[in-house]
Amino acid sequence: MNKPDFHFPKTLEKLKRGGPAVTLPKDAGMVIAYSGIGKDSKVVELGTGTGFMTVQLANIVKEVITYEKRREFAELAKQNIKKAGLNNVVIKEQDVLKGFDDEDVDLVFCDIAEAEKIVENAYSILKKDGCFAAHCLNIEQAKSLFLELKKHFKDVFMTECMTREYEVRDFGTRPQHFGLMHTAYLVFAKK
Amino acid sequence: MNKPDFHFPKTLEKLKRGGPAVTLPKDAGMVIAYSGIGKDSKVVELGTGTGFMTVQLANIVKEVITYEKRREFAELAKQNIKKAGLNNVVIKEQDVLKGFDDEDVDLVFCDIAEAEKIVENAYSILKKDGCFAAHCLNIEQAKSLFLELKKHFKDVFMTECMTREYEVRDFGTRPQHFGLMHTAYLVFAKK
Amino acid sequence: MNKPDFHFPKTLEKLKRGGPAVTLPKDAGMVIAYSGIGKDSKVVELGTGTGFMTVQLANIVKEVITYEKRREFAELAKQNIKKAGLNNVVIKEQDVLKGFDDEDVDLVFCDIAEAEKIVENAYSILKKDGCFAAHCLNIEQAKSLFLELKKHFKDVFMTECMTREYEVRDFGTRPQHFGLMHTAYLVFAKK
Amino acid sequence: MNKPDFHFPKTLEKLKRGGPAVTLPKDAGMVIAYSGIGKDSKVVELGTGTGFMTVQLANIVKEVITYEKRREFAELAKQNIKKAGLNNVVIKEQDVLKGFDDEDVDLVFCDIAEAEKIVENAYSILKKDGCFAAHCLNIEQAKSLFLELKKHFKDVFMTECMTREYEVRDFGTRPQHFGLMHTAYLVFAKK
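^ inputs. structure came back:
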């Protein structure tokens, strides 16, 4: 059983991966498509990690402001963003549980534990109809976040994106026997 | 068993759906994320349909050139693109099986039957490392396309994106019992 | 979107369904296959409901002892078992949270809320290498049960069985667009 | 990425696996549950392989007649059936494409290539409402079989059983990241 191919686009291939789990293209795609962000959007990211999602977002939108409390990740992310050739990202080395501010934001993307604690703050910086999206590592975190979002946001939903790759040969086609079965629970809401 | 919510972002909500099946956000997200397109990209779309995917692409990239051979769909797409407030789309009322040209394209997105017939033409207009992506309605079409792509492109793969939404309540969390199980087979390749 | 066909075998088609959700053949199949029960086995079922699973088990094994605390379900189950032409079932109208006894049992199948409360009792009536299996309606229940089983049993695992049916036509094959996405979490353990 | 645990019940654990892919418990469970076979049933199996499915069937039903054309597999199957302590199996070393006969059969289970060629023969030996079930290694084989079954049988359907196992820990629950994504397409029909 070999490691599956995550199909990173060219921009991501060059980046360095550190400790934290990255948001894979399949999940980044869900966030981009459901939020409807585009080239005029402003995005705030909570939890930069190594900057994989930051790069995927900044490649599309006008401006990304991203928060990371751990110095070593902020540094790694800075290098990755530079390698990707992007100049529309601001990294703030700051703990978002202690607060963050901004305004008229189109998307708040959140990839931290205890995401339920920043729900009200996220609401306050979004524009009307702006989207909140989160990448949750387990169902307990996703549930806590979902229930808190329900108190403030509309159109709250929790979903999961499962991809399955195929073996295609002239004589026979079938899904691969082994592969990536799960990455994260995704939770969305609209202001 | 109610119709599931496809979670269209705001831009898509206003659009008119005609006959052809649309590319839903979940599949549009895969195409955007795996291709790595961004705000500087040029995209050629083969098979406009009602313009749902056109709008999702044009919202992100610099320029979309889209081909549709049936007058009624081209007209509907024009209205939808206008409703979405986008002015970076060129619709060509033309049968792509008879040929199409362009150059330095970042992504060719294809949503037509017999997609295997345009593989060479698509290759010719893509830039190096440019991406080919297709939305196939059945596995026979996806297979024919895959095998033809293998002759010309690198990194050919076929995948499927399955989403599953959750019921989240304080006393109990589980996936929804009924819902959308399948939309399309997605085939990707790199020049 | 029509109700999906659950593909009940002939024996189940005649049965009457009351209030409680039944264990569908796909999940019954998992329990039968992973437990390895056969024609010489003795099974204890906790939570008869309308007797759908009782009938599926009794059709295969030597003897089923099943517990149901609610009179109306016990009555319905009795009728269903009779309709199915089975005479190897004993129904006990009794609340299993207050205790149950037996010995040398090959499989304890459990379909009640708060299943974690009967784990020790279930352990005591199983033979060595006997199997415990449960059908859980949400992930919170499944988790509580799993963690309690870990304290007493070996080979504890939690799984889910997802089926997807296909449209097969000469000109094109694909999974059905809409259908049954989830029924239950299944938890297994071995004594 | 480790090999996933297939959760073989005790009877299967001791068996020897040779070349051919075995029918795993999850798929055996589908066949048992959808066909409704029980302790009074007679089953004919086409394609014994190493006898994994033979053992799973014979553990449940009254009598299994199984066909295998390759001597080495027939021998291995014989040993496996003996190891499992079963004495209700007849192995016939014979190529089923050249014909087979029996009568009043409750289930014909088929695990051979070109299964579409034995459809009429299978029909002839089944009792009324008897079940045909097949384990197909790719979608092309499954489709050919399905279309041929439609000409003779009722209630034809093609499905797939996907299981997903969970990591359950006090602090967080989620599906396993990597695992078994696909085994076989299953095709069913009723006489």
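Residues 10-190 of chain B form a domain with the Rossmann fold fold (CATH 3.40.50.150). Strands of chain B lie at 42-46, 63-67, 89-92, 105-110, 126-136, 154-169, 172-175, 178-180, 185-190.
thumbs up if we can close this ticket
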